[in-house]
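Recall that a protein's primary structure is simply its ordered list of amino acids. Everything else, from secondary elements to tertiary packing, is in principle encoded there. The following example makes that idea concrete.
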Amino acid sequence: MTTMTFQNAHHSPYRVALDTNKQVFMAYDAKNNQKVAYGITIEQAVQALQKLS
């Protein structure tokens, strides 16, 4: 699985990966791998992650 790390001015750094078995994106906090959210699109996964904060 390949992950990419992103950060913007308004949110903490997060990583995004594609679970090819389930065909969903996973977004997780780059500082806390226990915070994980899923979505059909990257945007949905990131929005779900932001709601966990």
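Residues 42-52 form the longest helix (11 residues). The chain has a mean pLDDT of 84.
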